[in-house]
Each structure stands twice: as C-alpha cells, then as structure tokens.
Amino acid sequence: MPQAPGSSRVPESVPNVCVVTHPLSSAGENATRSLLDILGALTTAALVTADLPVDSEIRDRHEVVELTRRGAGDSVPVAAGRFLLNQLRMCRELARRDEEVVVFFGATAYLLPITFARLRGMTVLLQPRGDVPLTLRLSWEQRVPAPVARLLAGSVRALERAGYAVADGAITYTPSMASELGLDPDAPDVYPNGARYVRTDEFQPRVPFGDRERRVGFLGRLDEEKSVRELARVAQRLPDGVSFSFIGDGDLRGRLETELATEIDSGRVEMRGWVDHDEVPAELSRLRLLVMPSQPTEGLPTTILEALACGTPVYATPVSGVPDVVREGETGFLMESREPSDIAMGIKVALARDDLGDVSHRGRSLIESEYSFEAAVERYRDILTAT
Question: How many domains does the chain have?
Fold first, then answer.
C-alpha cells in the first residue's frame, strides 16, 4: 500500500468521519476495513459497529465503539428485536460523537439513527454494500413462507428508501449500482463513484497471461448465493483441455466433491479449498478466466477487482456495479444467461478469442488507473469536501 492506513496527514479541509455499520460478518469486516483505510488517509475516522471479529485489524488502526457482541440473529423475531435495539444503541452513541460526517456503511435501513444524526446537525451519507432487502428476502425464504419473506423484505426496503430521503447523500461503488438500487446517478446528492480499491502492489499478475494453462475458475464462498450449483454443471460441460478450479470453502463443498467426483479424479476439476488472502493473487494468476455468476445482491464483488488486477479477465453476471468494471469485450465478458450450458459456451467462446491477452492487459490498466488506493483516496476527498 502506498502509505500506512490512518497514518497520513489530516487535511483541515476534510471533516472527521464516523462510520456506522450493522453487525459485521467476515466479508463485511473486510469491506469496512478497506473503507476505513481510505478515510484514514484523509482524516480521523472512527467505527461504531456490532459483533466485530475479535482479531480484526480495525481495532489497532482506528477508534472502535462496539455496541454489542451479538450478531444479527438467526430467527426472524430475534433479528427484528436486535435490529431495533441496535438502532437505539446507535442513537445513544451518536449523541456522544463530535464528528461532522456520519457514513452509514451497509446500514442503510437504520432509519432511527439516520434521522437522529440529521437532527443533531451531522452530515449523513448512506453507502450501501449491495441490495440488503433482496439478500434478506432470499435468506428468509429458507425459513418462513415466501409471502412472509417478501413482506418483511418490503418493510426493510421501505425503511431504506426513507433513509435515503432523510440523508444528505448516498454513495455507491459505480453508476450502475446506483441505478439498480433505484438511485439517480446524476442527482446532485448521489456520489456514484464511491471509493473502492485494490492493493495493486500485492494483486498483480504472478504468471504471464500467455504462459497460463487453459484453466478457468471461481473464487469465493461455496454457497447458494454464488450460484455454485450451476457452476458444478458448467464444469461438467467444458470442452477437452479446459479445467475448472473451485477456490474457496463453504456449505456446498461436500456436495460438489460428490457430484464432481469423476471430474476431480480425471483432473478436469480441482477443489483448492480455502486459501489465505495473501495467496489469492497466485491463485487468480493461474486462471485464464474468472467465472462469477452471482445473484443480484452484491454491490461490486472485491474478487472481480482483484482478478482484473492480476490480469485475469472476468466472465460475470451484469448485476449492480459489475458492468462498469467488467466491460464487455474490453476487460471481460457479461453473461446473457445463467443456464449452465450457456455459461459453458460463453467460456469456450472467450477462451478462443485471439485478443484475450489484450483483454487481460486492459483489465490490469483499469484497476491501476481507477481502483488503486491513491485513486480511491482522491475520490473520497472529493466526496467529503463536496458535502
């Protein structure tokens, strides 16, 4: 990283910031740490959160106020109760804060503290990480009847819309993400190029693209949200000479190993398992194509940015902010269908392109110019000084 997060000068023109989140999973902790790294290069940034992982590096870099060690809750009634209680705790904490700006990161439906912060005269910015109501609906449909799940998710979406109306502004990763969330990327109170970065000194090609085997793959959690079951059927349909790597772990790993036993034995499929983050660049650099048929719940998957930084073209569903980064035929390819046979054909067509090496180069160049740490810091400087 160009400079240690949180250790740079504090320009007078950039206000101090308090970041507020809902209970954090490991993925949420990573995204929050990245945001705080950016803010820490500009100003003093504190975090108000719940259930922060014990070993989180955030504790060593920034002031952290942890409202509770409890997560969101497994059952719907428990989640609803903790949702309300955490909002009251947030209001109590915000009453003690003296930061000029509050960024609700992912906590876009927390209407009580959003309103309270506005009434206190703080500048309130909402930064979604993805489509939270849709994510909740998909999760709740596994536990309650679908009509009930839709009703509950609709209530969360109504709270979120009210939050956007009350807040001073909204930050999204890309213009496409803003549009998909129902926000106008051209509106004066929407900042559609929010800071997101990749450590370009760590994530860079480890293997020259021309030297890579005809190997494609997926990196992430092996669960339903990532459409891993469909990818298993894709792996069975690939042409001779093309292999598929599943990099990661999750609930569906055992099922994949059983379903793909023949392909694993023949070497056409490999299960790499969980890898440490410092090993990810090497794993991505083994691939000629990263395949990401995600559900429309994510804002902009970090894995896509990291793959492009490693010179690995991406073949992904055109959801949320993805089309602004995976540019058809330029830095990668967009799926027109999530049917396994169609995805497999798309992989075959992409690997046959004579200019795939150029696509690799353009992906790396995009990350260097728009998604480096320095570029992210400058984007957030513009946002904070404009509010």
Answer: 2
What's the pLDDT at 376?
A: 94
CA distance 228 to 232: 6
Spatial separation of the C-alpha atoms in residues 231 and 290, rounded to whole Å = 12
| CB-count burial class (<10 Å; 0-12, 13-18, 19+) for 370 | middle
pTM score: 0.88
- 215 and 175 share a domain? no
Find the mean pLDDT for residues 156-173.
Answer: 96
Average pLDDT over residues 298-312: 93
Instruction: Supply the DSSP string of 247-307, one letter for each residue.
Output: ES--TTHHHHHHHTHHHHHHTSEEEEE---GGGHHHHHTT-SEEEE---TTBSS-HHHHHH
Torsion of CA 118, 119, 120, 125, to 10 degrees: 0
Q: How many Cα neighbours within 13 Å face the side chain of 31?
A: 26
180, part of any domain: yes
With H, G, I as helix, E, B as strand and everything else as coil, classify residue 327.
coil
Whether 315 is covered by a domain: the verdict is: yes
Task: Report pLDDT digits (tens) over 31-89.
Answer: 899 999 999 999 999 999 988 888 888 998 999 999 987 777 677 788 888 889 999 99
Cβ pair 314, 292 in contact under 8 A = yes
229 and 310 in one domain?
Answer: yes
What is the domain range of residue 336?
209-370
Residues 112, 99 share a domain: yes
Note whether 150 and 190 are same-domain residues.
yes
pLDDT score, position 79: 80
Task: State yes or no: pLDDT of 10 exceeds 70.
Answer: no
Q: Is the same domain home to 144 and 63?
A: yes
